[in-house]
Amino acid sequence: EGSLLFDAAIQMQGGTVLEFGYHGLRNWATSKEIRASGSSNDNIPSGIPNNIYSVLSNFGTAPFGGFGETDAANLHRMEYSTSFDSVELSLRRRWTGPNCRYQGSFLMGARYFYLLEDFAYHTSSNNGSMDFAASTVNSMPGLQIGGDLWVSVAPGLSVGVDGKFGVLYNATEANNVYNATS
After folding, report:
1. What is the DSSP string of 91-108?
2. Most buried in the list 10, 111, 146, 173, measured by CB within 10 Å?
3. How far is CA 63 from the centre of its chain?
């Protein structure tokens, strides 16, 4: 899925740079469903076998025969969507070795990561239906450090590594809702 990535840098003094970055995924969603053979809607015609079992009953074994709403079913549907935003602000200090063969930087700053997820599970059988909805919000502020190191192996050719390490606090909120005919 496509996302937005934006980076900006402001030269402060000498080799010091103030960096801002944003990376975000607006919304990614998918859904899948399975229907009993021959059914074209939630009301399965008589004579068509209801043969879909769920993981909730270990596929009809616990309890034996499964649950009325989720097993021996004619429809199972799952939907998932997610989005995230990541914002960072860092101060980077660049350096160059005496012979200019080595160069790199150190950085320190703050990062905020925000993740949303939604999951829905619907089942339908002759004994009823079940809807399960789960949503989570992860709000993660924190601090980060990092840097890079580059080595000039030939004129115009450098090899290097770049990395960041962060410590984030995860404030999580989760909501789960079951709705079943029984």
Report:
1. EEEEEE-TTSSEEEEEEE
2. 111
3. 33
